[in-house]
Design goal:
5-stranded antiparallel beta sheet, about 425 residues, 29 strands, globular, mainly beta
């Protein structure tokens, strides 16, 4: 599950994987073992998110398409990068620097102005192991789809040094996913797409592309060597975790147009598709997933959201979200959960919001976000009204500790207006 003890339970996990685990599930107890100040209030049930948008953020015009918290300078305070579309001005990147106390100020980045025009998607990652985030842009130009890396100068300003490579990609790639996949303690890049085609316009043999990092932000395409071919199309989201108990990162592929897939890592970054024997045959229009150890048996389970599940795969009518229980060796069985929303769902985020060592869930639907407080094991109670500051529909969320209190805060993109809201986690 989550707290600081997680590190002692899986000591051989590579550093970037621990950061990923901490980013979604931990942070709350991250410094509890060495701090004289308790991080948890007298009653964790009082946890809630408070909207601090107007006092913490400068006004951002236009629609927000994407957002990522990032470490942009050595103070370790979580900064914020937004990808926006402004009326009359087109696409733009907005870099917001944190003053260390959760207040943000805009920083001009002239090198990103022209780059924004061709951008389809972006993410942030530390590619050169300096603990500062680079910016990675997925773009389309006259030659096709490419990824371009913008290096951070350590002060939140991005540029492209001479000789910085472009990564050429198959058509249809629409997402960049950073993770250390070959266990060498640097961040690699997995590119995925909903419908990936080769240079001849035919369905690609590999619906993903894997670029391995040499530790200095030089990346080489190792797809044919390390990835299995023909693992299905329609990949909307990969979920990275150790699923078979060998302390290396595996991949659960959320597939929009077919069954989800499970790729098991041999420890060196080479993956085998074990889906047919490891996953139940649930057919649905899958949208997202996240992992956690729900039952505290020291393995990683999954929660999957969908826009609909085929009747023959449903455990009950109007089932849209379900759990996958891990047997500890990377084989899963489906667990229904009637507590979850009985309407289409687009995203799920698992975290311990209240520090009580149980997994909580934030599930996004077209009717608004839902907060489910973990009761331990496979039990949840819906606490949306008590925990969330708004019921407005949310397109996507990104998480980070913005004020140094070791609780995860949230930047949420509103579905209707594409405006951003900043929610700070509070425990009274």
């Amino acid at each position: 599950m989550k707290d600081w003890k997680l590190i002692s339970k899986i000591p051989s996990l590579p550093f970037p994987f621990l950061i990923k685990a901490v980013g979604f599930l931990v942070i709350l107890f991250g410094l509890a073992g060495c701090s004289n100040t308790p991080l948890i209030g007298d009653d964790p049930k009082t946890q809630r998110f408070a909207d601090v948008t107007t006092r913490a953020l400068p006004k951002v015009s236009g629609s927000i398409l994407q957002a990522h918290f990032a470490t942009l300078n050595p103070d370790n305070a979580k900064d914020l990068v937004l990808f926006t579309k402004e009326r009359g001005a087109g696409l733009n990147f907005v870099v917001l620097m944190n003053n260390g106390k959760g207040r943000f100020q805009r920083k001009d980045n002239k090198n990103l102005i022209s780059a924004a025009a061709d951008t389809l998607f972006f993410t942030v990652a530390d590619l050169n192991s300096d603990r500062i985030s680079e910016l990675i842009l997925l773009q389309k130009d006259a030659k096709g789809t490419r990824a371009r890396i913008f290096v951070n100068n350590g002060k939140g300003y991005f540029y492209r040094p001479e000789g910085t490579q472009d990564l050429r990609l198959n058509s249809g790639i629409d997402r960049i996913n950073p993770m250390d996949l070959d266990s060498d303690h640097d961040v690699d890049l997995l590119f995925t797409g909903k419908k990936v085609t080769d240079k001849n316009g035919k369905e690609a043999e590999y619906p993903m592309q894997l670029f391995i990092n040499n530790g200095k932000a030089r990346l080489v395409d190792r797809t044919a060597t390390l990835m299995p071919p023909h693992v299905g199309q329609g990949v909307t989201f990969p979920v990275f975790a150790d699923y078979d108990g060998d302390s290396v990162v595996d991949i659960f592929l959320v597939s929009e147009r077919g069954p989800n897939r499970l790729l098991i890592n041999n420890g060196l970054g080479q993956f085998t598709d074990t889906s047919d024997r490891a996953l139940p045959g649930v057919i649905g229009k899958n949208t997202h997933a996240d992992w956690a150890d729900f039952d505290d048996d020291k393995d990683n389970d999954l929660l999957v959201t969908t826009r609909g599940i085929k009747k023959s795969s449903q455990s009950y009518p109007s089932e849209y979200t379900y759990l996958l229980e891990n047997d500890g060796r990377g084989k899963f069985k489906k667990r229904p959960m009637k507590t979850f929303p009985n309407i289409p769902s687009r995203r799920v985020y698992l975290l311990d919001a209240d520090g009580n060592e149980t997994v909580d869930a934030l599930i996004l639907t077209h009717k608004g976000p839902h907060f489910f407080a973990g009761l331990g094991g496979w039990s949840f109670a819906i606490k949306s009204k008590a925990r969330l500051p708004s019921a407005s529909p949310v397109l996507e969320m990104t998480f980070g500790d913005i004020n140094g209190d070791h609780y995860l805060d949230v930047f949420a993109i509103n579905s209707n207006r594409r405006s951003g809201r900043l929610w700070v986690s509070l425990i009274d």
